[in-house]
Amino acid sequence: MFHELHLQGKTTAYDFYETLAHRTDNISVLEILSHYTEFHRALRLWRSTMALKRAGHGQDPGGIENTSNGELMVECPACPHPGRNLPERWDKAGSLQYLYILYLAVDANFKLKGKDRGLTDIELTPGWGAFVHEGQYQAHLNNYVDQPEINSCESEHDAIVRAGIRSSPGYSVSGAGLAMCSRHSLVRKNGVGDLQKGERYSNMDFIILSALKGVTLPWIIITYDIACQWSKNFWKQMKEYPPEMQIDPKTRVDAAIPGWHINGHGQPCRTKFALSYLDGAGRTCGDEIEAGWSHTNSLALSVREMAPAVRHETLNDNWYGWNFRKITRFPTLFAKRFKEARKMATKHRQAFVNLSDTFQKATIEKWDDMVKAWKKDHAAPNPFDEPRCETTLQDVRLELSHEDTSDTAKTTSSKHKVTMTGFLTIGLELEDRQYVLRYELSQMKEKKTSKQLADLQEKRATLSWLIQNFREVQLHYTPCMATLLSATTASDLPTNEHAENVALHLPSSWPPHLRSLPEMAIVRDPSPSTYHQSLWQFKKINISGTGNRLNTRILTLYNRFNTKIKRCAFRYRTARSALVILDPNGKWQDRLRVLHDKDIHGPGRDPDDATSKGRYEMSWIWLVARPADVELQKEEELNEGMRVEWAKGQARAERWEEELLIVQEEMRRVISFFRWKADWWKSQASRRQDTDPITLGGISAYAYKQADIGRQLARCCAKRWIPILKEANISPEWASQFEDLKNTDTPVKKRRSMTQTSPNTNHAEEEEEEEEEDRDDDEDQYLADAYNFED
Fold first, then answer.
1. CA dist., res. 730 & res. 621, Å (int)
2. pLDDT (tens digit, 9 = 90+) per residue, 502-549?
3. How far apart are alpha carbons 766 and 584 in whole angstroms?
4. Residues ≥6 apart with Cβ < 8 Å to 470
5. I want to staple 349 with a disulfide (CB 3.0 to 4.6 A). Which of 163, 198, 532, 653 is the partner?
6. Which residues of 269-290 are buried (b: 16+ CB within 10 A; e: fewer)?
């Protein structure tokens, strides 16, 4: 009971024992001898014995002495294990070799400290579980007492800073370094080690190489929050370790920074060490290890008081339980991942195709060659690096001033010189000016200053004069509109209506029988949104933190761009509304969609967007074909800015497509591993012949019980996965082993309420039947409890 409470709620042995004592005598009047010391010793012996038993050493003729390093650790069934869960000729997979990558996540935790209390005790399972062998570990560290920790990363990451800080006074252990399989969050055998002086490379190298000892896979991806620094001398430092700990030089080892940690690094790290751009990474995040720390952080206050050996055994036991609980949740985990990968792979591939269709074939080929060259050699130009912005702040101000001057000079018309097309253009420009004036009014406070009122009056007077000129041209080309204008003089404006609210009576507002003028086309101009994103990046990189004056100036320009974007959105929505009236069934609707506020953003992910890089979806305005009459110079500028987004879009599509195949391979490996484990336990049943028949019967029975658990785990996974694979028209080869499940859906238990039963129903018999059905169907609970049964 204590063991279960400890694994689930981190209850300490002291609290549990005191609770039992209070249950016995809550007012402390009885003279009861304390058995806390005996309980603690018995707990250590029982916990170690159970770990050995569950690892199969009861069936081993060599006994406990035959235990090797890491052998008590619960292994991950979803990771690739040659000879256990990999298919024949898996090493000849070619372009699909990424299906057999081992993904390793590495991190350190400085909450798992250990006090230097001068206590010495004997470790009952030395190096047999998650922790490395302490003797070998300490002998290695003695050679790196004064090793310098060099940092050349822009991030000044806390992990490297801590490496140069001595451990806190009174503590012999400053924390723990850990390695786990990043996709499934199971702690690796011999994947944990104590830290003495921060997160030093010498400590972490030993832990990583111990976790990879015996691995013969050709491809490994290691995620580490300081991978940009750690990976520089990894191969060089590895030569100083024993041959059995070294990785085969032919093995490809890629280092990457976890998805969320990478945001704190500089631009070179964010492209070179990003999992999003790494072939074979799928949708691996690398930050799953942080969830593992949340499992052990609640133990920090108790383990820091323990002697070294007990501390190791307690943490080892918690990681055994953590790994086992992760395994029992595999049916749900991989079902969820498959559904998401299937959906997102289709969505992002289609988005990438749509984006590619907006550019010329030669441009796409140029970009594709650039991406391939960078993947082959990272010394080549990086396609994911943002183009260098050569525009200065004053250049931006000058451009805005030119645009403002151009806008002011427009709409000076004369009925003798204006063509019909010019008439329609002037009408649209006047409509735009009305919107701008209304927007400016909405930004003013209710109580306006004298200057604001004077400026407003001048703008209204100018707009009124322009509308009066437009009326003359309007009557010239559309005399039928005379009845819709003023009843007196068509050129007069209503005296009780401001100029910004006067109806212009453009063709889209006419009755159907009067619409005879040519329809106007809508031309997409994405430049404001592109400049908007570039301007924000310019401020972030060059101005932020340099003083109020510069920040205020850039924010003023930023607000002007915001106004310009809103103005462009108004133009688009107004023009589209006109098209809906003029040509409601036109093919233009395939390209010109309804524009929502959430669609108005640049092609790239905004800096403040909480959406992960792999799930970011580009706005539709960047996925439709551009007009054919775009200026060549403007096209080249846009292409250079869009090159990065095209490369990122390709990477997103590729990572999700990889994820879809990786998840299916992981499903297959889980099934194969469980069946292999069942066969392994079955082979252990008859190994011992050195004791009496009764004991041998118990040893054999336990082996067959564990073999049955392996088969039941495989069946439980198959029951959950076969229906969703069938729905996707996928028939995996391993499904043939579960023919009785292929035509059945995942069962859902339904409990009948008392109101659904007949008055003549025998409730006692019905309840008994329901209990029997629960015992048959509730396999998950059986599997969760199976490892805890006594012989």
1. 35
2. 887 776 666 555 554 443 334 334 444 444 454 445 445 444 454 555
3. 63
4. 411, 413, 426, 427, 430, 504
5. 653
6. bbbbbbbbbbebbbbbbbbbbb
